[in-house]
Amino acid sequence: MGKTENKVNPIRITDADSGEVYVLEFSRESVRFAESRGLKISELTDFPQTNILFLWFCAFRKNHREVARNQTDKLLESLGGLKVTEIERLIQLYNQPTESLIISEGNDRKKRPTDGGNVNSCNYTDGFL
């Protein structure tokens, strides 16, 4: 995925009580945070009461790290929940940082100064060169 190709815009919400605007999106760090705490996006609907609330909370991490879990839960409750399209968009936002690591077949690899962009072969004990 290129930098602007298929870019999903962040979700912007405003807290009706405080007027604070929250920008929800994910970075590689916030995805690692979620994964390290057991979130498996493939199991999102298997355990919706746990996973959807946690995905919602993690969406705050990139831009609003100081917001506590109980605040995000209350905000979601005040919104009356999420529509299916909003959950789908959260999933797209969650997947976006990972997709940026994958080069599609039609795109060229960025050239590295040392090897002209070629990835040298390696075995699992050597790692990448």
Explain how this protein is built.
A two-stranded antiparallel sheet has the order 1-2. The radius of gyration is 18 Å and the shape is globular. Helix 1 (28-36) packs antiparallel against helix 2. A hairpin with a 6-residue loop joins strand 1 and strand 2. It has helices spanning 28-36, 48-59, 69-79, 84-99; strands spanning 11-14, 21-24. The relative contact order is 0.16. It has 129 residues and is mainly alpha-helical. The mean pLDDT is 84.
Order of helices and strands: EEHHHH
Strand order of the largest sheet: 1-2
Q: Into which percent range does the helicity of residues fall? A: 25-40%
Can you give the mean pLDDT?
Answer: 84
Low-confidence stretches: none
Number of helices: 4
- Identify the overall geometry: globular
Strand tally is 2
Largest sheet: 2 strands, antiparallel
Ends apart, CA distance between termini = 24 Å
Rg over CA atoms: 18 Å
> Helices and strands: which structural class?
mainly alpha
The amount of beta strand, in percent, is 5-15%
List the SSEs and their pairings.
Elements: E1 11-14, E2 21-24, H1 28-36, H2 48-59, H3 69-79, H4 84-99
Antiparallel strand pairs: 1-2
Which features does this protein show?
129 residues; mainly alpha; globular
Summarize the structure.
This protein has 4 helices and 2 strands.
